[in-house]
Amino acid sequence: MKAWLIFLVALWLPSLSLAQDLPRGMSFIGLTAEGWRAFTVGESGQPELVYDLIEPREFTWSPSADRMVFIYADGTIAERQNAATQILVLNDARDAFTQIRLSRKGQELIAIRLFERKSEYTALSVWQPQRQHFSDIHQQLGKIFDPSANDDKYMFSVVTCMLDCGGIVQEAWVKDRATRDAKQLTLHNGILRYPIWDTHQQRTVYSLRTKKHFQLWQTNKSGESTQLTRTDGTDLWPSLSHTGELFFVRRTGGRGQLMQMSDEGEKQIQLDHIRDIRDLEITQ
């Protein structure tokens, strides 16, 4: 009986990593015994609590710029850089901003504008530090969500159809920084979330709802799409390390688990004292 138990444990252990170093620049919001808290990963390779930030609605962080931007529970947007905190947008502003994200090594802050604090009309916006306000850089027919960016392009998802299509249709789009042209990247006729660009493998990675759950998919430069994960869980927030490692959050049983995908398959990464996670991202 003991030998059989040892055999079962040996089979199970490779799917669970207990003490793995995480990539510098990773951040997420995790549920602890004290509530939802923000965590960052620096040189130690382990999650570190942002001690004086309680119940943030959203959080983004850049280790290169020593800059973090967050949305308080009441909707106020603030930033902290070099230990100094300032308010960017008050919670009673005419428009609301959501899905904040730092890019370009923390030098750029992007967000989605919700006109009149509603999701009916949206825009991709960039914070202008000299003018101290957000400026819109892209609007189009449909609702824009899930922004990400690198030095060459912006990526986002667009809801192009709802009731007339018999359901929501949300696809990945890209906007070139130099030409300012935007084009659609995918045609799944489904619900697609959180597209990011993988410079190492020249592909777009995203979450796509197939039947009941969101799974990870990729689309290469030739436009060919491939499903990456197949699970009864929900796979969200794909994030790439600077060396091309793919991390994501898998929601099962009402909680999120940090996952990593490699050539050997998927594995769960144990996070001590963190019961649930959301809003995973990796920046420089």
UniProtKB/TrEMBL annotation:
<protein>
    <submittedName>
        <fullName>Uncharacterized protein</fullName>
    </submittedName>
</protein>
<dbReference type="InterPro" id="IPR011042">
    <property type="entry name" value="6-blade_b-propeller_TolB-like"/>
</dbReference>
